[in-house]
Amino acid sequence: MTTQPVHDPRRSFAQALDQTARQIAATRPDELGKRTPCADYDVRALLGHLIAVLHKLVHVSVGGDARELPDVVRDIADDAWGGAFAEARGEVERAWADDAMLDRMVTLPWGTMPGRVALDAYTHEFTVHSWDLAHATGRLADLEPALAVEALQAFVEFAPPDERGEQGPFGPVVQVSEDAAPYTRLAAYLGRQP
Fold first, then answer.
1. Domains defined for the chain, CATH in brackets
2. Where in the numbering of this chain does the Mycothiol-dependent maleylpyruvate isomerase metal-binding domain appear (predicted)?
3. Using one digit for the tens of pLDDT, what is the confidence trace for 140-150?
4. What is the pTM of this model?
5. Can you tell me the distance from the alpha carbon of 16 to that of 132, in angstroms, rounded to the nearest whole number?
6. What CA–CA distance (Å, rounded) separates 65 from 49?
């Protein structure tokens, strides 16, 4: 009898962070005020949210509750977002390098779960927010389609349309053709206008 290898989400998570880092590096200070498809954020606030998520992942790695930290970091200079993201990413990678973190229970804003489930969820969040950032700044060609395919599969399972309320990060599904590009289908599924 063979056993399935245990899923380690850190590789996909790193790919999502690589993609996000490329989008951040390409973002110019004059683009920071642009609206994003994520209704809560302009580009500056979205960048602050992405860094805040990394801080939350470090915080939960030492037993903290992610809800104890702000959802958006706001004290970063307009030309320092790339460096701030790289620094926070390094902290996350060091905090999650130990394989034991994957099975440790961590508390996120939406519940308590094993670390591997949390990293999967944040892989998909970074994938969606990379699209938000790329859409706002006109850099959609720089996105990795495989990440969108994985994220869409996860969101279909964990964010079905019939369980969405009036409040929350996802709106009603926007209809697009079945042969639309992966990020178009992902954005539309989450209620964003692709």
1. 10-146 (1.20.120.450)
2. 13-134
3. 888 999 999 99
4. 0.91
5. 13
6. 17
